[in-house]
Amino acid sequence: MTPPRTPKIPYGGDYNPEQWPKEVWDADHRLFTEAGIDTLTVGVFSWSLTQPAEDTYDLPVLDRILDRAAAEGRQVCLATGTAALPPWLAKRYPEVNRTDFEGRRHRYGQRHNFCPSSPAYRSAATGLAHRLAGRYAGHPAVLAWHINNEYGGVCYCDLCAEAFRAWLRDRHGTLDALNDAWWTAFWSHRYTDWDQIEPPSALTEHWRGPDHTAFQGITLDYHRFTTDALLGCFLAEKEAIRAHDPDTPVTTNFMGMFRPLDYHRWAPHLDFASWDSYPPLDAPPTVAALAHDLMRGLKDGAPFWLMEQTPSTTACRDVNPVRRPGELRLATFQAIAHGADAALYFQMRASRGACEKYHGAVIGHAGRDDTRVFREVAALGKELELLGGTTLGARTPARTALLFDWDSWWALEMSDGPSRLVRYQEVVHTHYRAAREAGADVDVVPVTADLTPYDVILAPALHMIKDDLAARLEAAATRGATVLATFLSGRVDEHDRAFLTDVPGPLAPLMGIRVDEWDARPEKTTNPVRLGDFTAEARLIFEIVRLRGAEPIGTYTTDFYAGTPAVTRHHVGRGEAWYIATALDQPGTAHIIRRILTRHDLIGPRTSHPAVETATRVAPDGTRLLFLLNHAPAEAHVTAPAPATDLLTGQRTERDKPFTLDPLGVAVLALQ
C-alpha cells in the first residue's frame, strides 16, 4: 500500500482539541484556514480520554473532533493513542509498567511507559484500536491511521525475560547453537536450560551502562528482541484496524537515526514511512538530510511523511534556540527535496501546562495570528498550495548508495575495543556529507538492498558482515561500480563473533589488503595522512595495512607505521574497491569521495556554491525537479543545468544563466 492520495502536500500537524473548550476550537479552525492547514493528527495521547475505565469507552469528544474536521474540509491522521498508558491500566495491571535497566519496576508516570511483553497492555491496546477502527473506518475525515507514537524504550521484567527466551528458541533453535553463537565457553557461561538465560542488564552482564557488556552476543540479541517485541505491538494494532478498515494506509512515526530500534525490520510492515525531525539547529544541513534519506530508503525509495517538526523551538533540551526567520521554510523544502510528501508540525496549538507548554507551536498561548511564527507558517502554506501535487510520488534518481546497518551500529558501539570513541553515526555522516556536498544524490539503504542500480556504494564502519553481502559487493565492483569501506569494517559475523581470517574478514579479498594491527589513540592525537599533494588529518583508529593486490593512495606520516598505507584502491573487474583505514577528517574524506564520484561523473551542480544544497526528484509524469536550497545567510548566485521554471515564483531561467537565491532561499526548478 502507498501513502495516502492527496491533491497536494498535506500541511498541518498534531492537534489536541480535547484540551480546550469549543470556543477555542472555533478560533483554531479560523486560524487553520488562514494558514492553509488541511491535515490534523489527532488522538495521539488520548487513551485516558477515550477509555476512562477498563470496560468504558467514551468517544463523543473524538466524534466531534473528526466531524468538525470533515465539516471544515480538513483531513485527519487518526492515532490510536496507545503510546501513553491511562492511569487505571497501570493501577489495575502493574505488570504493564516497565522494569528499567537497573531492575526497578516503575510506577505510573510519563509516556512510552509500557512493557511490550505485557498481555494486559497488548489486550487493552488492541481493544482500543478495534473500537476506534470499528467506529471511524470510512469516516470522511480519516486519511491515515497513526499507531502509537515514537516507539521506544526497553523493558527487563520477568515477562520480557520469558518472551526473550521464546524469541531465542525461534532464532537459534537449540541451546548448542545459542552457546556457539554467544561463545559461552568464555567465562563459564555455557547454558544447559533456556530458563537460565536472563536479559542483559545492570544486574547481569553489564557494567558502566548499556554499552558495556561482558557478552556482546547476548546484548545484540536483546536489541533485536526489543525491536521485534515493539514491532509485535504495532502489528497487533494494525491487525485490529484491518479487521474493520482494509484500505486506509497505516503508519507510525519514526525518529530518524534512532539507535534503539532497527527500522529496517519494521519497514515492510508500514504502508508508508513517516518520521519526526528535530535536528539540532546548529547542525550541518546534512544531518537532517541524512535522516530524510534514511527514511526514504525504508520503503525502497518511496516518499515518506514528515510527521513532525517544530515551527519554532523545541522543549526537550537544556537550551532550546528558536528557528530564525526563513529557517522553517528552508527545512520544510529540504524535507520535500529528499522525499517528503507531507509537511506536518508538532504542535498546532501550544499546550497550557506540562512539559511541552514551551514547545514551539503554530498557534501560541495567546491565539494570535500576527506572530512571526504564524505568519511564516501561513506564507509557507500558500507556497505549498501553489506547488500543488507536482512533487507527490516523485522519486530520487540516485546512483550513489550508502549502506546503513543497525546491527553494525549496535555491535560497534558496545565493543570492548579498539576504541569507544568511534561513533557510528559520526562516521556515516562524514561520508554521507562528503557525497552530498559534492552534489550527489544518495540513497541510504539497508545491507539487504539490491545494489545493481548504483555506481558508487559507500559502506562506512560496516562492522558486521551478514549473509551474502561480501559477494554482492564484489559483484558490484566487478561490473564496474566503486565500493568504499572503512576502518573497523568486516570485523564480526551476525552473532558478533570475530572472523577467523584476515581483517577485514570477508571484505579482505575485495579490498585487496590485510590488516594485522590497529592502533587506537585519544581524540586529541592526530596522524597526518598524505594523499598526493593533499594532506588530511586522521584520528581515533589507525589500522596498519599490508597490501594484497591493492595500491596505496594515501600514507601515514608519523609513528612507527609512517609510510604505510592509510588509503588504498584495488582494481576489481571493471570497478574499484577503496579502503580508508583511519578516521579521516571531513576535508580528507571529501577528497577521497570526490575522486570516486568523478570517476562515475556524479559530481553535481552544488559545487558551484558551497552553501547551496541540490537534490533531484523525478515526478510520476517524468518531470525532473531540481531543488536548490541556500543554507547561507547571504545571497547565492547559481545557474540551472537546463532551461527551467521555478515552480514557486513562475520565473523562467535558461541553461547556465545566473540567477540569485535569497538568503536561506529556495528554488524548485522544473527542468525542460
TrEMBL record:
Segments forming domain Glycoside hydrolase family 42 N-terminal: 14-385
Name the record gives this protein: Beta-galactosidase
Record-annotated membrane-spanning stretches: none
Keyword Hydrolase applies: yes
Substrates-to-products reaction catalysed: Hydrolysis of terminal non-reducing beta-D-galactose residues in beta-D-galactosides
Pfam entry (one): Glyco_hydro_42
Family: Belongs to the glycosyl hydrolase 42 family.
Enzyme Commission designation: 3.2.1.23
Top-rank lineage group of the source organism: Bacteria
Native source species: Streptomyces edwardsiae
Record-linked InterPro entries: Beta_galactosidase_C, Beta_galactosidase_Trimer, Class_I_gatase-like, GH, Glyco_hydro_42, Glyco_hydro_42_N, Glyco_hydro_b
Beta-galactosidase C-terminal domain residues: 612-669
